């Protein structure tokens, strides 16, 4: 015995999917609010996509990407402003205050969460159906991660809010890794804390050291609240979708270890 089990988040730990989610959001925003885009040229689209990378840590659920796209257009094009918050707003202020801004713009734009979720999902599905290789190519694995996964001697599990079939396709196509289906816990398999409980209870995992690698601080804090998960080593990946402020907070939490990308790859060996 004495081996290691790693439960790995997918987006922001293994795979940088921000380009994909930002492009899907831009496509969806054009369908939902076509009149917004009259003055948006390709240079402004590039600027929007770049800002979406900065803003990615605030996104909890995919549809919020659509709201961010529209807000960024409002920052750049005063004539299409319908929200009271856009005047004088900066990208840094959005990053800092998203949870306060979000309900205000939803109300002022007269938008509903469920409709935006439906639209976002539909646009992504259409992209995958029409152009699978283009969709796959808009994702990338972080440097060194594909090799680390291929040559890992630890037991690996993927624990993600992405649909398992998408994670599986990206692992195969971009990393050359095929994990058995039972190693990928995707959307619909329950909260991550419940998945970790299942993993630690499996008879074949008794005696293994347990490690969970995430890029979202709030998720690690949920694990810390569960006394039964006290045996897990918790890591926050510095390279993923978190902010300087969140990393500083994580430094002050003894249970959490901050991890650099190069150390992560070494750990899996
Ligand atoms: Mg993540």
TrEMBL record:
<dbReference type="InterPro" id="IPR023214">
    <property type="entry name" value="HAD_sf"/>
</dbReference>
<dbReference type="GO" id="GO:0035493">
    <property type="term" value="P:SNARE complex assembly"/>
</dbReference>
<dbReference type="InterPro" id="IPR036412">
    <property type="entry name" value="HAD-like_sf"/>
</dbReference>
<dbReference type="GO" id="GO:0000323">
    <property type="term" value="C:lytic vacuole"/>
</dbReference>
<dbReference type="GO" id="GO:0000149">
    <property type="term" value="F:SNARE binding"/>
</dbReference>
<protein>
    <submittedName>
        <fullName>Uncharacterized protein</fullName>
    </submittedName>
</protein>
<dbReference type="GO" id="GO:0005768">
    <property type="term" value="C:endosome"/>
</dbReference>
């Amino acid at each position: 015995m004495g081996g290691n089990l790693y439960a790995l988040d997918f987006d922001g730990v293994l795979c940088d999917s921000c380009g994909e989610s930002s492009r899907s959001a831009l496509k969806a925003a054009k369908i939902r609010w076509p009149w917004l885009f009259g003055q948006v040229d390709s240079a402004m689209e590039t600027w929007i996509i770049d800002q979406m990378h900065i803003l990615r840590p605030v996104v909890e659920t995919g549809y919020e990407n659509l709201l961010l796209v529209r807000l960024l257009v409002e920052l750049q094009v005063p004539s299409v402003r319908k929200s009271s918050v856009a005047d004088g707003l900066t990208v840094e202020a959005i990053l800092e205050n998203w949870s306060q801004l979000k309900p205000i713009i939803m109300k002022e734009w007269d938008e509903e969460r469920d409709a935006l979720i439906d639209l976002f999902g539909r646009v992504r599905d259409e992209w995958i159906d029409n152009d699978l290789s283009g969709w796959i190519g808009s994702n990338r694995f972080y440097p060194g991660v594909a090799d680390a996964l291929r040559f890992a001697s630890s037991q690996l599990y993927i624990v993600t809010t992405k649909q398992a079939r998408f994670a599986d396709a990206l692992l195969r196509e971009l990393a050359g890794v095929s994990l058995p289906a039972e190693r990928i816990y995707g959307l619909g398999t329950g909260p991550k804390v419940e998945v970790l409980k299942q993993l630690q209870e499996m008879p074949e995992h008794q005696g293994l050291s347990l490690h969970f690698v995430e890029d979202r601080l709030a998720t690690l804090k949920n694990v810390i609240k569960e006394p039964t998960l006290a045996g897990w080593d918790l890591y926050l990946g510095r390279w993923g979708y978190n902010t300087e402020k969140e990393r500083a907070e994580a430094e002050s939490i003894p249970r959490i270890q901050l991890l650099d990308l190069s150390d992560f790859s070494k750990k899996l060996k």
